[in-house]
TrEMBL record:
Residues spanning the signal sequence: none
HAMAP family: THF_DHG_CYH
Catalytic activity: (6R)-5,10-methenyltetrahydrofolate + H2O = (6R)-10-formyltetrahydrofolate + H(+); (6R)-5,10-methylene-5,6,7,8-tetrahydrofolate + NADP(+) = (6R)-5,10-methenyltetrahydrofolate + NADPH
Family note: Belongs to the tetrahydrofolate dehydrogenase/cyclohydrolase family.
Cellular compartments per GO CC: cytosol
Function per UniProt: Catalyzes the oxidation of 5,10-methylenetetrahydrofolate to 5,10-methenyltetrahydrofolate and then the hydrolysis of 5,10-methenyltetrahydrofolate to 10-formyltetrahydrofolate.
Organism annotation: Propionispira arboris
Recorded GO MF terms: methenyltetrahydrofolate cyclohydrolase activity; methylenetetrahydrofolate dehydrogenase (NADP+) activity
Pfam families for the chain: THF_DHG_CYH (PF00763), THF_DHG_CYH_C (PF02882)
GO biological process: L-histidine biosynthetic process; methionine biosynthetic process; purine nucleotide biosynthetic process; tetrahydrofolate interconversion
All residue ranges annotated as the Tetrahydrofolate dehydrogenase/cyclohydrolase catalytic domain in the record: 6-123
Pathway(s) served: One-carbon metabolism; tetrahydrofolate interconversion
Family matches, as SUPFAM superfamilies: Aminoacid dehydrogenase-like, N-terminal domain (SSF53223), NAD(P)-binding Rossmann-fold domains (SSF51735)
Protein name: Bifunctional protein FolD
Amino acid sequence: MTAKLLEGKIFAAAIKAEAKKQVESLQQEFKVTPGLAVIIVGENPASKVYVANKHRSCEELGIYSEVIEMPIDSTKAMLLAQIDELNHNCKIHGILVQLPLPPHIHTDEAEILDFIDPDKDVDGFHPINVGKLATGQEHLVPCTPMGCIKMLELAGIEIAGKNAVIIGRSNIVGKPMFHLLLARDATVTVCHSRTKNLAAITKQADILVAAVGRPHFVTADMVKPGAVVIDVGINRIAPKKLVGDVDFEAVKSVAGAITPVPGGVGLLTIAILMHNTVKAARLQLS
Ligand code: GUN
């Protein structure tokens, strides 16, 4: 069997086209242009690329975009002051602090993210939004896992009643993915670095989500024939070579459908960020 290729660009284009329509209707009906502010601290090269891509997507869709570059030695207080300004800035409907933060403020990450107005929290990381997701009141939801869900929905892949297995329990992907799949009536198992007999569990998965951050971690013997395999990993194994968490070449002959890396769910993350920014602007209309 050769798996169906789930290409991110097709789904991302559909989500962005819908967001663009929403931008136009917000402008026509309410004279409001959705605005996104992205704060980047320091010079992390990968982060700079991600932030530039976000800015470009905003421009494509007619979303107002501000990139705030703060020096590497910025203090927690400086970041909180910047967020405070954006929380009160009526041109800005979405605020994103690009992670990772530099080491000297890394331990302050939770306090910094919690300072973002929950209605402007387009990353969906604020405890209020996490709590809403966990209690079935989806509000602003983390972009990468929501991108995986939208991709399944747009590809016509049924979620209800399926066995879904997630490898990875991060706050950004694994945990929100669990809630999103559970809310859509999948039977969900979350595996992690201490899971025993991992392959025996992953082989039960109709939908397998890999979010471990280890190149080629998921091998063909871990996959049920015909399964849908979603690869959230982005691992740089050489200066110009990115690979996922899934051994794509081997797994594609076992799976029923598979996302490539690059060119898979990574493209959906930004599309959902645009969607969340428009949604946040709508929430703030009153
Ligand atoms: N760095 C890598 N992924 C993300 C993300 O989803 N949000 C933020 N803010 N930073 C990131």
